[in-house]
Amino acid sequence: MLKKIGLVLVALTMIATSQVWAAKYELKIQTAVPSSSMYFETMERLGKRIEKLSNGEIKVEVYASGAIVKAFEILDAVSDGIVTGGQAWTHYWSGKHPAGLLFAAPTAGLGVGLDQTGLLAWAWEGDGQKLLNQFYQEELHYNIKAWLSMPMGPEPFGWFPKKFDSLDELKKMKFRSPPGIPSESFKAIGMPVVSMPGSEIVPSAQRGVIDAAEWISPGDDKLLGLSDVWKAYYLQGLHQALSIGDVYINKDWYDKLPPNLQEVIEVSMKAMVADQISMNVSINSQALKDLVINEGVTLYDTPEEYFKAYMEVVPEIMKKYSAKKPFFKEVLDSLNAWAELTVPYQVKVNGLYYKMGKTAMDSGTMHDYK
Question: Is 255 helix (H, G, I), strand (E, B) or coil?
Fold first, then answer.
């Protein structure tokens, strides 16, 4: 009997010890998105993966935008240890340094044809991750480690009151644009732009402050209710044709992890890329189908003259910032070199996929949303 009691006590001790061990590291991540967003679900998946791969040694809690700090306070909160992790986009901080946009959303593929797959390859196979952390740690002096791990593009051109056929028509519409270089690029081709948070888009449209707007994707645009205001939807835009979110962890917290748990974080971040790509196709396809079939939205192709005009102004804007900021030039040079390597291949591959789909639709074996 005593032997059995002893075995039970040993077992209870082992369970208690494992529970203490399981709670050794706590990772609290503040996101810049609402809990309804697909990108919040991506972050929740990231948290669950880290917990499982760490065998419970890392406990992860994910918070929606504003739960602990506001979206534009996330970087400081992670660096100061108010939270141990965060999610946003590098271009959120382009007001601190314009190179932020080059990592998250290099406008119009830099005007040289760089696409999102090429940008991801630069991040993980080229100098992207190294330069990203140099940007945060040395240029902005934040105590964080960062990963480019949430591919979200291409983001649609946006929502308009009616079909347009020329650049001249666009120049007459007040357009909600992201701030920074995208906004500067729109202005350079003659479009009047206004920047505001997503939550203000619908009220601003109803008050006549703006005539048209862009947000993120069919899935998130639908959640925001943009189809209640506009019915003309253009998917092919350039301002954020490439869009990748990043995740941050307090560097002191990360550096204290043993090597095997640091590797858990690294592997989980890379797996997040695949997660987001798969979700983009699934959720955005379903949302777009619903918008067209059930909400009366019409899809239009963007006029060719928009592409030509926009891509012509972007390299000149990039040169201007390169002349002012040495680190901007360093990142831009790295990206342009990567584009020279990858664009010829990507054009052929992407052209194949486009021709496959278009041939199927033209022949009637595949149909557009009706």
Answer: helix
Q: How far, in Å, are 73, 177, 210, 249, 298 from residue 76 at the CA level?
A: 6, 25, 32, 11, 42
Distance between CA atoms of residues 67 and 252, nearest Å: 23
Tokens of 270: 């890379």
* Whether the bond into 179 is cis, omega within 30 of 0: no
DSSP E strands: which ranges in 64-164?
85-88, 144-151, 158-160
Beta carbons within 10 angstroms of residue 173's beta carbon:
18
Q: Could you tell me which residues are beta bridge partners of residue 176?
A: 194, 213
Question: Do residues 108 and 310 touch, judged by C-beta distance below 8 A?
Answer: yes
Within 10 Å of residue 350's Cβ, how many Cβ atoms?
Answer: 13
- List the one residue out of 185, 55, 161, 183 whose CA is nearest residue 110: 185
3-state DSSP helix/strand/coil % of the chain, to nearest 5: 60, 10, 30
Would you tell me how many other CB atoms lie within 10 Å of the CB of residue 359?
11
The sign of the torsion formed by the CA atoms of 107, 122, 89, 287 equals positive
CB atoms within 10 A of CB 169: 13
Question: Which residues sit opposite 145 in a β-bridge?
Answer: 249
Confidence tier at 368 by pLDDT (50, 70, 90):
confident
Which pTM does this prediction carry?
Answer: 0.87
SS3 234: strand
CA separation for the pair 133, 140 (Å, rounded): 10
| Residues facing residue 300 across a β-bridge | 234
Distance of CA 66 to the CA centre of its chain: 18
CA–CA separation, 45 and 262 (whole Å) = 18
Q: What is the pLDDT of residues 47-102, one digit of tens each?
A: 999 999 999 999 999 999 999 999 889 999 999 999 999 999 998 898 899 999 99
